[in-house]
Amino acid sequence: MLKRLALRTLMQPSVGRLLSRLRRDRCAIVMMHRFAVPESARPGHDPTRLRTLLAHLRSIGVSLLAVDEAVQHYAIAGGHGSAARPPAVAVTVDDGYADFSDVGLPVFEEYDCPVTGFVVPDVIDGKRWFWWDQVEWALLHASRHRLALELDGNPLRLSWDSAEERGVHHRTLCERLKGVDDATRQTFLTDLSQVADVPVTSDMPTAYRVLSWDELRSCERRGARFGPHTMSHPILSRCTESQSRDEIVQASARVLDALENPSRVFCYPNGCTQDFGAREILALRSTGMMAAVSAVPGLVRPVSIGTDQDAIWRVPRFAYDDRHGVMPRLLFL
Ligand SMILES: [Zn+2]
Known about the structure:
By secondary structure, the chain is of the alpha/beta class. It has helices at residues 2-10, 13-22, 47-59, 67-76, 99-110, 121-124, 131-141, 163-178, 182-195, 213-221, 241-258, 278-284, 326-332; strands spanning 27-32, 63-65, 88-94, 115-119, 146-151, 154-159, 225-228, 265-267, 291-293, 318-319. The chain has two domains: 2-125 and 208-332, TIM Barrel, CATH 3.20.20; 131-195. Helix 3 (47-59) packs parallel to helix 5 (99-110).
């Protein structure tokens, strides 16, 4: 009850405005993914709730910044004699799905909120689907609902009688597939496609469509920016050293070359502590990027010269949460 009361108090505009004046130099980068599309059952961020959150942040004096500015002002310049800055939020959206321009961007435009997407060139170029979409597609269209497979040398049996059970298999499989190397995952996807009798076509189904380069450039003209998220979205720490380097260097070069106002912030796939390390940071230093964001929760901290030289390549992000009062609490408490 105390927690509910605290959250309600935080949502009071007068309390928020007071905290905005007191809690200077705080900056939260927020990580979003897919947006809910009207008349689609696919879960996603609700644009109405996003509107409410952005309106609230604006009304209490929180700055809404692009992630490049957030990194520049609160990590690189922060703590080095700069004047105290108002609290800020930077919004990022991973993976570059088409619902970003149709559903998300109109809301960001309405609130004059800068937004940065992180994109995956091989998917944009139609060379592959995101692997989690491949898994979902195979389960959705399987000719049988009893499948016997192998994953990483272990037998795996899947059976379902309802959409809910199928959804549980999808989530569980995705978690397990994050834990194997790229080649093992690829073998599993090929097997799944055969056993389920669902071929992966070169035409990506509408539900999984990502924005084309032309569409990304047209979003740029509406104020969005885009940074690299690797070439093919592997978990970098599970790649060989040269694969990991190519994923980082090629994606950064491609995004810098193809877009008009590219973000110089890189985003690690999955982005947990164990998903990248020193060799990824070394590769990033040669790319023209100025920072990288993870999915490790935390506020943006000033990067202290001489203490942790790599902190700028491990900038934390909070998962987006539009529940009442959660974002102000992350920012202020
Ligand atoms: Zn991603």
